[in-house]
Write a structure and sequence with these properties.
amino-acid biosynthesis; EC 2.3.3.21; 16 strands; branched-chain amino acid biosynthesis; 3-stranded antiparallel β-sheet; 17 helices; Double Stranded RNA Binding Domain; TIM Barrel; AIPM/Hcit_synth_CS; single chain; 2 domains
């Protein structure tokens, strides 16, 4: 068992998208898939082709991944139809991605009551659908829906479903605890029994968290012989969610003898990955999340803090920096110098580790993040802050006055319309530019006015496109904010070659916060175009 490989399968973009209140945009899905690929996930399930316009757009032009395989999800063929005559199945296996994961019934109760078909027909649906996906050149996987309930009800039939998928050519047969009610001992026993009965089948595990033990169940299944594990970032998913890969991955890498596709030097990216998802969903990060929560390595006054200061290992099961976190003493923070230097290296900023300006920069970043700035998700704003504090010039322009007016009225046709008009004054060197523009909403209007003023001085800004815009109200009850109610704006930019970057603005006024984020976005582009500042 020592050194055996565990394959990581992320279903955030599909199963995680079923979370109440979660609605991924096209830009969200591309950014999340790219981040998962970068950290070393083996399979990224992008969604269900044919299920909704967002998934259709995503699979029409899926992101080019360097390490992971993109997976399309869907159902086996329907009863009474051939695989060639099932549009739903064909939409999935025709998607231009290397792998397909098909779900089917493995609980005899569902086959009899929900599908109202014979056991033989259900087995044919499984094997034929998997074979059809494989014939299209896809790596075919089968999700055994409600497997643990099915095994408890009728072990022979549940095993027949596993064998049918294997006979059809499935590379993985994934045992699903779909209602999340199975406990770790049962998971271990059942997966062990399946492995013994089907030794040639490559088994996976997919656990929901309704009993609060999805990560424990996943680890139990791996011990019993599963070699693929499915889950989501931050445990997203319907009802109580899925196994949380942000907890599961470091547990596998740091606490077991198994190997994954994520090397230890990539583990520090876990916290940024977790925060990135939360920011895209406008959710407050869970401060008490294992490994990556802000309180995961926080020591309060008293016995624990005293012992931790003498030897942090006393109350820390892993070193916080191994997962991108840092130790906090709630009276006085200890800064993460190594994390800061690692981020500098990503941006190509060279700085002496002994440079005294680092301490000031770390203090400023901590202060701003306490106020509500989100530099994990707005890497461009962080880079500009660092460059400014290290003395690099970036004063390409200054933003003077701006004004935004919204008019709600009925037009000549009697239709209700809302129009936004903005004016902006931009100073570039000794020149002052004043422009006005009409836009689709106040942010688009002020962006257009700013761009008109800037493009004459900096033509490379003409190709910059806003692809995502998120607003979040922070208040005194928010773990990320320590002041009164303020507005945080996150903006994502893109240029035709596919380069994207994100900035953040913070203010009590939503337009002011937007203007700050827009300004950073333009300056970051000029810095990376090596345009000289006036």
């Amino acid at each position: 068992m020592s050194g055996e490989r565990i394959w990581l399968f992320d279903t955030t973009l599909r199963d995680g998208g079923q979370t109440r209140g979660v609605d991924f945009s096209h830009a969200d899905k591309i950014a999340i898939a790219t981040a998962l690929d970068d950290i070393g996930i083996d399979y990224v399930e992008g969604g269900w082709p044919g299920a909704n316009p967002t998934d259709d757009a995503f699979f029409a032009s899926p992101p080019k991944l360097k390490n992971a395989k993109m997976v399309a999800f869907g159902m086996t063929r329907r009863g009474g139809r051939s695989t060639a005559n099932d549009p739903g199945l064909n939409a999935v296996i025709d998607a231009d991605v290397p792998a397909a994961c098909l779900v089917g019934k493995t609980w005899d109760f569902h086959v009899k009551t929900a599908l109202n078909i014979t056991f033989e027909e259900n087995l044919d649906m499984i094997s034929q659908s998997i074979a059809a996906a494989k014939a299209r050149g896809r790596e075919a996987m089968f999700d055994c829906e409600h497997f643990f309930d099915g095994y408890k009800s009728n072990p022979a039939f549940a095993l027949d479903c596993v064998k049918a998928a294997h006979a059809g050519g499935a590379s993985w047969v994934v045992l699903c605890d779909t209602n999340g009610g199975t406990l770790p001992d049962d998971v271990f026993e059942i997966v062990s029994a399946v492995k013994q009965a089907c030794p040639d089948v490559a088994l996976g595990i997919h656990c929901h968290n309704d009993a609060g033990v999805a990560v424990a169940n996943s680890l139990a299944a791996i011990r019993a012989g599963a070699r693929q594990v499915q889950g989501t970032i931050n445990g997203l998913g319907e009802r109580c969610g899925n196994a949380d890969l942000i907890s599961l991955i470091p547990s596998l890498v740091l606490k077991t003898e198994f190997e994954t596709g994520i090397p230890k030097d990539k583990l520090p990216k876990l916290m940024a990955l977790s925060r990135m998802l939360d920011e895209r969903l406008n959710r407050a990060p869970n401060a008490h999340a294992p490994y990556v929560g802000a309180a995961a390595f926080a020591h309060k006054g008293g016995l624990h803090a005293s012992a931790a200061q003498k030897d942090p290992r006393t109350y820390e099961h892993v070193a916080p920096e191994t997962v991108g976190n840092e130790r906090h003493y709630l009276v006085s923070d200890q800064a993460g110098r190594s994390n800061m230097l690692a981020r500098f290296a990503e941006f190509g900023i060279e700085v002496d580790p002994k440079d005294p300006r680092l301490d000031r920069l770390i203090a400023v970043v901590k202060e701003k993040e306490f106020e509500g700035w989100a530099f994990d998700s707005a890497e461009a704003s962080f880079e500009l802050l660092a460059r400014r504090m290290l003395g690099e010039p970036s004063d390409y322009f200054s933003i003077g006055r701006f004004r935004v007016m919204d008019e709600r009225r009925f037009n000549a046709k009697g239709d209700l319309v809302v129009e936004s008009e903005a004016t902006a004054t931009i100073v570039v060197g000794a020149d002052t530019h004043h422009e006005a523009a009409v836009g689709n909403g106040p942010v688009n209007a002020v962006d257009t006015a700013m761009r008109k003023a800037l493009v004459s001085a900096y033509p490379t800004l003409a190709d910059v496109e806003l692809v995502d815009y998120k607003v979040r109200i922070l208040d005194a009850n928010d773990d990320l904010a320590g002041t009164g109610a303020i507005t945080r704006v996150l903006i994502e930019f893109r240029v035709p070659d596919g380069t994207t970057w994100r900035t953040v603005g913070l203010s009590t006024n939503i337009i002011d916060a937007s203007v700050a984020a827009l300004g950073d976005g333009m300056i970051w582009k000029l810095v990376h175009d090596n345009v000289p500042a006036p």
